[in-house]
Design brief:
InterPro entries: C-N_Hydrolase, C-N_Hydrolase_sf, Nit1/2_C-N_Hydrolase, UPF0012_CS. Belongs to the carbon-nitrogen hydrolase superfamily. NIT1/NIT2 family. The chain has about 280 residues and is of the alpha/beta class. It has one domain: Carbon-nitrogen hydrolase (Nitrilase/N-carbamoyl-D-aminoacid amidohydrolase, 4-Layer Sandwich). The protein has six helices and 16 strands. It has a six-stranded mixed β-sheet. Strands 8-9-10-11-14-15 form a six-stranded mixed β-sheet, with helices on one face. The protein has a two-stranded antiparallel ribbon with strand order 6-7. Helix 1 runs parallel beside helix 3. The longest helix has 19 residues, at about 190-205. The radius of gyration is 18 Å and the shape is globular. The chain starts with a strand and ends in a 14-residue tail after the last helix.
Length: about 280
């Protein structure tokens, strides 16, 4: 596309209710659209970020009834933009399973959801600083990868902890993704150590743009997230990066021919070989 694609990543500090979350993110999306962004991406947990189980359970709604999801769909239609709700925590719809789905939703300029992706890899870990996370207790992992069509090329969908699984990103690239979204709410210890290097590695391995909008700062439930939303080019170069944790709009222009150029220069996606397992 002549002139490239104008995108915006929205860095947030999402509150603990959908109503407050919508009020928090809407002005940032309006700012992005006013600045010319045609494709806007928000972080993981855009509709609610709450790890206290009782409050979280009370906040989770069906996708069709979530105030933030409905409001963001209307906003995309009003502004005439493509919008990736990086993820919304919604009821999974699975009978007998009270866990939520951590779900990416791609919304077109008519406000319609054109693609969904439920986070495949849930974050169960005890960090060296004593922080413990057991996402599997409240989130039901998805069971399939997802690539979505946009006017500018195919978009691979991932969420946060998925960044540590290179084979997923490789499959997305082989399915035609020239852009891969990595909406996140990274912890501070892992973000400081690994965030940028993981994003750059996935871009280099796939020859794709990596678009990573993030949560940042101290949240109402007591957690801290890393921020530093980042756009990485297919050659692994940083195209744009927030250097802080505060809510903001990060813009970039993507040359959509760059992915093909990177994959021609290093055609690793075509060089897979079968091999015997290590013993």
């Amino acid at each position: 596309m002549s002139g490239g694609l104008d995108i915006a990543l929205i860095q947030t500090r999402t509150p603990a209710t959908a109503e407050a979350a919508l009020a928090h993110v809407e002005p940032l999306i309006r700012e992005a659209a006013a600045g010319g962004a045609k494709f806007v991406l928000t972080p993981e947990g855009t509709n609610v970020l709450e790890q206290r189980r009782d409050r979280r359970d009370a906040a989770i709604k069906d996708e069709e009834a979530d105030v933030a999801v409905l409001g963001l769909r209307r906003l995309a239609a009003e502004l005439g933009i493509w919008l990736l709700i990086g993820s919304a925590l919604v009821r999974s719809g699975q009978t007998g399973d009270g866990r939520a789905a951590n779900r990416s939703l791609l919304v077109d300029p008519a406000g319609a959801i054109t693609a969904r992706y439920d986070k495949l890899h849930v974050f169960d870990v005890e960090l060296p600083n004593g922080e413990k996370y057991c996402e599997s207790a409240t989130v039901r992992p998805g069971d399939g990868a997802a690539v979505a069509d946009t006017p500018w090329g195919r978009l691979g969908l991932t969420i946060c902890y998925d960044i540590r699984f290179p084979h997923l990103h490789r499959q997305l690239a082989k399915a035609g993704a020239s852009m891969i979204a990595v909406p996140a709410a990274f912890t501070v210890p892992t973000g400081e150590a690994h965030w940028e290097v993981l994003l750059r590695a996935r871009a280099i391995e796939t020859g794709a743009f990596v678009l990573a909008p993030a949560q940042g700062g101290l949240h109402e439930d007591g957690r801290r997230t890393w921020g530093r939303s980042t756009v990485v080019g297919p050659w692994g170069e940083i195209l744009a990066k927030a250097d802080h944790d505060d809510p903001c709009v990060l813009t970039a222009k993507l040359d959509m021919e760059a992915a093909a150029k990177a994959r021609t220069a290093v055609p690793a996606l075509t060089h897979d070989r079968d091999f015997l397992p290590a013993r």
